[in-house]
Design goal:
With 446 residues, the protein is of the alpha/beta class. It has 15 helices and 15 strands. β1 and β2 form a beta hairpin. The radius of gyration is 23 Å and the shape is globular. The chain starts with 11 loop residues before the first helix and ends in a 10-residue tail after the last helix.
């Protein structure tokens, strides 16, 4: 914790408000450690129970996380808007930033021509009563999903995959309910689960997706929802295989007490077949975002599922945001309908695959087995994340520490390959090998 920021308060409400204020102003940065309960209680002259209540309230709201021996810390992405000074500092000057998990902007389809065409063809503005899912968009979306074996009867649109997941969890679960999530898994999802006051149960992941024994254990522990990434899993790149899908469907078959959520965020960029679980449970939803193939600023995802689940999401949207912009829907429909855009996305997917496979091969030459079956990330197990990230920083590479994505999984680092060039692979692999197996400092002979 910053030595310049002093916590204060004599009640749990005052203490929690002071901590939140520190996070909001940037005095308490993401990941900052807070004093132990008894130490802060002694400093403030209050009972340990008062401090414990303050910490518990902030954990339930997703602002703090208890990290075992590391104590209580500010979450990496706490759900409270902070001043710009609290944003993540940039990498060291001259360093290559491979930590962000974003697509290569150079490979995204240009939006200008389609926006110009929409501007030239703009008719009367939609009214509140007429807005909603465009029928023509729904028709094309159903056809694209049907081609991948996803039943697409009931359909709605959300403002991206995470927005859809939030609406699904909010419509089915209540604070304190357990959610089975991949471990390691998407950092944004882990933060969302915390912000909703839900209890995450980690499910181990291998290259073929969530492990069946882990899902079974989560169900036995009372999980009321299961979130699965179909392909290009973030951070490991895993993709649900045909055999894994069959085993998971058998495990989940007919369950009426579980909400199954599938996230196919990479869609056309995945370059591996889709083996959906859709329909295995009575309550289910399948989400496909457009942000990865077409650009992060296109906040739109197609959501299909059983009638009740889709109706709950659509109804909640109607009394909140109302609808996803029909202008955005028309733009996405234009991109879907352009063969030239299809070709650009195909070439982007091929480029990511070449970079990812090239890095995996280069690491294998150093005796390192990393993971990245699909998508834009490579997951490399390391003995110690802090030393690995530091060594890579000193070598001019910025990567993401695995702690952002883990619950109980082993340490690792995530490397985003989307901006790599062919001549980057050898030096990066050498730096990763050194970071994963650092040379011990000279010491006394044994």
């Amino acid at each position: 914790m910053s030595a310049r920021y002093q916590l204060s308060g004599t009640t749990a409400v005052e203490i929690s408000a002071g901590i939140e204020s520190g996070i909001r102003t940037g005095a308490l940065s993401p990941g900052a450690a807070l004093p132990p309960v008894r130490a802060l209680a002694a400093d403030l002259g209050v009972s340990p129970a008062t401090v414990a209540r303050a910490y518990q309230e902030l954990r339930q709201r997703g602002l703090l996380v208890t990290a075992g021996r590391l104590g209580t810390r500010v979450r990496p992405r706490p759900p409270v808007a902070a001043r710009r000074s609290a944003l993540r500092p940039p990498p060291l000057p001259g360093a290559r930033d491979l930590s962000r998990g974003e697509p290569d902007r150079r490979l995204l389809p240009p939006l200008g021509p389609h926006l110009a065409a929409l501007a030239a063809d703009t008719g009367p503005s939609v009214s509140y009563s007429d807005a909603g899912v465009l029928p023509e968009l729904a028709e094309v979306a159903r056809a694209r999903l049907d081609a991948d074996g996803v039943p697409a009867g009931e359909l709605t649109i959300t403002g991206g995959a995470l927005d859809g997941i939030e609406r699904l969890l909010g419509a089915h679960l209540r604070p304190g309910d357990a959610v089975a999530v991949e471990d390691p898994g998407w950092a944004n999802l882990l933060d969302l689960v915390a912000a909703l006051g839900l209890r995450p149960i980690g499910v181990p992941v291998d290259d073929e997706g969530p492990m069946v024994a882990g899902v079974a254990a989560a169900l036995a522990a009372g999980a009321r929802a299961l979130v699965v990434t179909s392909r290009a899993q973030n951070p490991t790149g895993s993709a649900v295989s045909a055999e894994r899908a069959e085993a998971l469907r058998a495990l989940l078959a007919g369950r009426r007490d579980l909400l199954l959520i599938e996230d196919d965020h990479a869609a056309e960029l995945a370059r591996v077949p889709l083996y959906p679980l859709a329909g295995a449970t009575a309550s289910w939803a399948f989400l496909r975002s457009v942000s990865k193939p077409f650009g992060p600023d296109l906040r739109l995802a197609v959501l299909v599922g059983d009638e009740t689940t889709v109706a709950r999401v659509a109804g909640r949207t109607r009394v909140g945001a109302g609808w996803v912009s029909t202008v955005l829907q028309r733009l996405v429909l234009a991109l879907w309908s352009d063969p030239a855009v299809d070709e650009l996305v195909r070439r982007a997917a091929q480029s990511y695959e070449q970079r990812r496979d090239g890095l995996l091969t280069a690491l294998a030459e150093h005796g390192l087995r990393a993971h990245g079956r699909s998508g834009i990330n490579v997951w490399l197990p390391v003995p110690d994340e802090t030393s690995a990230v530091t060594a890579l920083r000193d070598a001019g590479w910025a990567v993401a520490p695995g702690a952002l994505y883990r619950i109980a999984a082993a340490p690792a680092v995530r490397v985003t390959v989307s901006s790599l060039h062919a001549d980057d692979l050898a030096p990066l692999a050498a730096a990763l090998a050194h970071a994963a197996n650092p040379t011990p400092p000279p010491g006394f002979p044994t």
